[in-house]
Amino acid sequence: MDREEYIYRKLESLSPLNKALSQEMAASLGEWATIEEVAKYLKRHKNTIYDKVDGGDLLYRRIGPSILIYTKSLIFLLE
Fold first, then answer.
1. Which of 2, 14, 52, 79 is the most buried (most CB within 10 A)?
2. Which structural domains are found in the chain, ordered by start?
């Protein structure tokens, strides 16, 4: 199982509270968000978000020079 599949399975098994929180983040930020948007939303430094992306803790896509994060996966930063 690759990392992306693991994150999707983990998202499916969230508690009802965590599912609601992840949906709220997606409603606020949109389905995909940039590193800067996520850092501002979570009130964290963008290097912290880059570290989580590099560590494979978040689901993301690299589009040219930009990195877009699947906002529902942000719930894993709060655990």
1. 52
2. 3-77 (1.10.10)
pTM for the model: 0.88
Decide if pLDDT at 78 tops 90. Answer: no
The two tokens of residue 23 are: 């949906």
Let me know: does 60 contact 72? Beta carbons within 8 Å.
no
In the beta sheet, which residues pair with residue 62? 67
Please say if the pLDDT value at position 1 is more than 90: no
